[in-house]
Amino acid sequence: MSKIQRKFVVPGDLVVKGDFEPVANAYRDADAVYALKVGLSEIEGDKVRIIPLAGRYIPRIDDPVVGIVTDVNAFAWTVEINSFFPAFITASDVFGKRFSPERDDLTRMFNMGDVVLARVAAFDRFKDPMLSVAGPRLGAIRGGQLVKVSPVKVPRLIGRRGAMTKMIEDSTGTRITIGQNGYTVITGPPDKMLVASQAIELVETDAHMAGLTETVQAFLTKSMGRNAVIPEPDYDGE
Amino acid sequence: MSAAERKHEFVDVLRRQQIEEGLAADRRLDGRKANETRELSIEVGPVVKANGSALVRLGNTAVMVGVKILQGTPFPDTPDQGVLTVNADVLPISSPYEEPGPPDEDTIELARVVDRGIRESHMVDMKELAVEPGKKVYAVFVDVAVLDVDGNLFDATSYAAVTALASARFKKVSVKDGEVVQMEEMVKLPVSTIPVSVTAGKVGEFLFLDPTGTEEAVMEARMTTTFDSEDNLCATQKGGEGFFTPEEVLRQMEVARAKAKEIRAKIKEAVKNAGKE
Amino acid sequence: MTELINARNIRIDGRKLDELRPIKLKVGVLNNADGSAYIEWGRNKIMAAVYGPKECHPKHKMLADRALLKCRYHMTPFSVDDRKPPQPSRREVELSKIIREALAPAILLEEFPRTAIEIYVEVLQSDGGSRVASITAASAALADAGIPMRDLVVGCAVGKVAGKIVADLNDTEDKEGDVDLPVACMPNLNLVTLLQSDGAMSKEDFEEAFKMALEKCRYVYDLQRQALLEGYTPQKEDE
Predict the structure, then answer these.
(1) Considering the domain B13-276 in this protein, what is its CATH number?
(2) Interface of B with C in 90-149 (CB under 8 A)
(3) Domains in chain A, CATH or no CATH each
């Protein structure tokens, strides 16, 4: 496999000339690929992608997201997921085919302000994102603390194969549920949730600096008064 | 806050295609070539109660302008100069997409672009419009009433405003012992040059002059250029959510400069003929 | 009247004919906005903020096939020598429109149907060339908001002062000079997105001024790109 090269780009920057395919946040014009966003360009084989460094969440089908219920009507819940469009969960997704607007009260399931973990079931530019709570662990999250992380920093918060999240969880004894949209729920004892949320904040501010793992590890060690559980170091966002 | 507003018919795909294919063959919907403007008719002095007036028809677009010359106080930074203002109103009778109310951004842009063409060409010598420097000057009000909209309000309005100014007559005043005395003789405004605005639209790679309403509905960008009698460029305004290549800009300048000469001759003739009556 | 350009071709503020005033640009300066930028250009001090793409209000303005781009150029009452009344002037209304139209060609509006993207430009202190400074800042703010763009947009004005073509007019030159020619472009694509002029110019004057404006845009672009780079590679202050 070819080595991945990264470089900082801004919109309009020439990323690479020649026969390359823009995969994400890049476009092709004549014989070259240009960046569409501020980010890090990545060329892998003949594929070019820009890992964005800014922006709201763009829904992708099957992404787990954490959302906040902002409206309920007779047929659906409106869920705020830190994106351009409000998302929806339809009543039939929860009540099944036998759903009847006359009989079933949606607020019995989720009410305004509830935090839910859901999966993006359908989305394209012309259709608001549709969420589903059918699946293991999906549904309302009834305890913990919601922190809002920039969606572009989520890959860093997860780390390579979940290493960053695991380090924070193991060191603080909390559980962290991360939505791809950046909304993240921490559960655990209050003092430990505080440390975990501070560690997440640190990941966010230092996300694109070298030595992130060491920085967070040092913070956890200091805060928890014992050695943090150290995963293998990584500089990889994905 | 500025936001694009649709002020034209919803253009169907067939019409769009027809316009694009036509431009590629240098044949527009109304049969014109890219560098041809629509028929221009200029009526001088239709409103006798104004000091100067004109009704201009450019194709189906109709604009009336009245000029009133009153007395006022100069601006503090130009105490020895008269005052000129252009005010536009795209009347609700002019199109189904216009409503009564304060001028929207398109109307404000129209007034300001026409104003700049007149002001920056120094068409009217403002220094000659001082009555008593620092205290009393002539105030020239150019009021635009757009009557019927079928594209290219910029040029139609500019021609009407310039014609109305060039043909305006007013009675001078003088101040004697603090009293304002009106003279009997009617005089012309001190006009030294005739600014002419020429607007082009752009669809794809094609630029064309004097767009109609339908063409404006599919247009990506617009460029209005105003030239004085010495063929100098006096004002430019790019509009629309599209762009021009630098080469297009330079090319269009020359197309417009030549067209401006043609139209200036028409305006001058109209003003001259009206003066004979 | 003051001499605008002396015998050695030096301008009233000590600049050479084609020299720009100092420019400082910083992105990510506001917490609540999705993207923001602050520019100091000569004595201009301008803050730009971008919100969105977000839900479009009012709903009847919503576009089915693209985002609605909104823009407000606003001068604070204290930004000029006299007090500017807070309600929008005709000049501000026009500038809001032409700034929007200068930025729109760069943005992939079609990626976000039914949403709105809001651009706010606040002039805290004004000087000559505030519209091109605003465009430069607003484009940086759009990039900072992560909004996909074909290219950045930068602006620079060129003018004619005391018979000579000069770059980047300051307030005095703008008022007392003969010509002002503000230009904005997408520098990599070499496309002009804003073009205005006032004051008489011969064909040769225009061609020289237009060429100089595009060259200076390139210079401003390098600064703008650098500002974005610095905004995304934060330097640790205590190091």
Answers:
(1) 3.30.230.70
(2) 105-106, 108-109, 111-112, 116, 119-122
(3) 5-52 (2.40.50.100), 64-140 (2.40.50.140), 145-224 (3.30.1370.10)
State which residue of chain C sits closest to B249, comparing Cα positions.
C192
Question: Which of C73, C87, C97, C156 should one mutate to test binding to chain B, selecting the residue with the greatest count of B CBs within 10 A?
Answer: C97
Residue C172 is assigned to a structural domain of this protein: yes
- Within-domain flag for C159: yes
Distance in Å, alpha carbon of A27 to nearest chain C alpha carbon:
8
Best residue in C82, C100, C197, C202 for a mutation probing chain B (most B CBs within 10 Å): C197
Physical contact, B and A (3 or more Cβ pairs within 8 A): no
> Touch between chain C and chain A (3+ CB pairs, < 8 Å)?
yes
**Which residue is closest to A52 within chain C, CA to CA?**
C146
* Residue extents of the structural domains in chain B: 13-276
Q: Mark out the alpha helices in A36-184 (DSSP H runs).
A: 91-95, 154-158, 163-172
Residue C51 neighbours by CB under 8 Å, 6+ apart? C33, C34, C117, C118, C120, C145
Q: pLDDT 10s per residue in chain B (277 long)? A: 888 877 887 788 888 899 999 999 999 999 999 999 999 999 999 999 999 999 999 999 999 999 999 999 999 989 999 999 999 999 989 998 888 889 999 999 999 999 999 999 999 999 999 999 889 999 999 999 999 999 999 999 999 999 999 999 999 988 888 788 888 889 999 999 999 999 999 999 999 999 999 999 999 999 999 999 999 999 999 999 999 999 999 999 999 999 999 999 999 999 999 877 6
In chain C, the residue whose alpha carbon lies closest to the alpha carbon of A209 is: C233
Domain extent, residue C51, equals: 23-232
Inter-chain residue contact B235 with C198, CB threshold 8 Å: yes
- C192 domain-assigned: yes
**C146–A84: do the CB atoms touch at under 8 Å?**
no
Query: Any idea what the CATH number is for the domain that residue C160 is in?
Result: 3.30.230.70
Question: At A38, which amino acid appears?
Answer: V
Chains that touch C (3 or more CB pairs under 8 A): A, B
For C147-179, write each residue's pLDDT tens digit: 999 999 999 999 999 999 999 999 999 999 999
Residue C152 lies in a domain: yes
| The total number of structural domains that make up chain C | 1
Say whether residue B247 is in contact with chain C using an 8 A CB cutoff.
Answer: no
B70-125: per-residue pLDDT in tens? 999 999 989 999 999 999 999 989 998 888 889 999 999 999 999 999 999 999 99
